[in-house]
């Protein structure tokens, strides 16, 4: 724009050179900002605007603009009607204050129009999820939730960044579950072009893990072990050798058969379970929490003991993969853990993945263990947890206030594991 600009509203000339001298200096920038904000909100340019603490230079600039000293008081107050009248009367901006602000600061887009434009852009960005939800009903509620709870906006910030991100997420979820299971990094490289596309902490990984819960029914959670298990539930192995599970007298592969023949424990990796799971299962598989139980069973019964799986605390991705596989083959599970709040939480985690019946893991069993305990049992600590398979168990723990580890009832557990083929309580 030259010396004489043009008001984009009605074509009335604006003397931009004089306008900049009068209104465009830094000492009146606050006034332009207030006017522009009103225009964006669709408000009238009338009435006063005030600056709470004005400098002498700002007061002098307002005086030059109005041709007189502004109203007194601590705040600097300028009436927009008066500014508009000065601009029109002087011929600097015959279109008034609106034309002047537009000439100095650029076209003003109403906020309502900006919001509508952003809504349209976000709707287009969500198109991959909308299409995915239409293809797979399991993902419909999830797609609506991540749209409505703002997760995508927090991760992507802008619709321009969200669209390619959601394209990636949709491609990943369409390809799941992976059959046969694959390395997560290889899967990411093949599908998304980079082995690191689904690394921990990336927006794509965060959204994909959220979608996997809806796709596979994997329970919510947090932490590295949970993420590993969540990926594994969809056939993607993030770390396929460090996640392991202990078993005893489980058969079905040459390695398992060899170890079962000598009655020694066997360590299975997530990789082995993904690529070469046992093709058969015994009708009943016992599950314990602590390695001491499995070790004692191997010492006591050797190859004659019943099949036993040890969780070693919170179930690993390998343990969950093994048990889910055995369950799909028809296995029934009997579970025992420590009688404490941590043990109940482990049992609840396992229960969220596979069904099981208690194996000497009820209130009656706990009370019997307490009655047979020595004079100084360990006190129960930590926050309480439920026991939905036997609600009285949690009440009994609260009542007695002592913890009983699996080793305290080891003799009874070992008796149940004697290889006579019978089911146990």
TrEMBL record:
Occurrences of domain DUF2399 (ranges): 266-417
Name under which the protein is recorded: TIGR02679 family protein
UniProt domain Conserved hypothetical protein CHP02679 N terminus: residue ranges: 45-251
InterPro entries: CHP02679, CHP02679_N, DUF2399
